[in-house]
Structures are given as C-alpha cells and as structure tokens.
Amino acid sequence: MEIANMRRAKLVPRWRGKRALRSAQVLDDVVNAQVALLPQLSPEARQRSADHLAEMVMLGQAYRHYAAGWISRRELERRGKAALRRMESTKRPPLEQLTERE
Q1: Which stretches does the entry tag as region Disordered (predicted)?
Q2: 99 in any annotated domain
Q3: Residue 80 sits in which domain range?
Q4: In a domain, 100, yes or no
Q5: Alpha-carbon distance values, 8 to 14, 17, 50, 70 (Å)
Q6: Alpha-carbon distances, residue 51 vs 2, 24, 62, 86 (angstroms)
Q7: pTM passes above 0.90
C-alpha cells in the first residue's frame, strides 16, 4: 500500500458510512457462521476456506476504514477487487471429467 493512499479521505456521507458499516457487519456474520465449520473440512479445503475467510475479514476492515473516513471510496474499491482476485486465485483447479474411454 502506498503512503499517498493513507491520507485522510474526504468526509464520507452519513448514509454511505452506515451502509459500509452494515456491509462490514454482514461480512463478520458470514465469517462467524463459517469458521465453526472449518474443523469438519479436509485439510486442503480447510486451508482454502480459512484463506477466503481471512480475505473477508480484511475486506470488512476496509469497509470500517472507509466508514471512518480513513480511506477513499476508490481505495475501498481497489481493496475489494484485490481481495476478489486473491480469493479467485486460491480456488481449487477444475476437476477433469473422466469417461470410460479415457
């Protein structure tokens, strides 16, 4: 992250700040609900799911930073896109479909 992006953003309109906090709460709720299921998964699936949940926690924190006016909407969008890219990169490779002839 660049230092220039850390300067205080303009004041966030109240409705956007509230919406950002609600979004952060939704992400927290999803993480809290899913983290209890991690022990039931295979080690590979557990690691992948834990990585996805960690990304969701960081995204929730970015929403809180936006609501506080610490980052701009552009920076929030950048962090959201980066989180999605990281989550997509940890997806399991597609399974090959095998047939009897192969």
Answers
A1: 82-102
A2: no
A3: 9-88
A4: no
A5: 16, 15, 31, 5
A6: 24, 18, 17, 9
A7: no
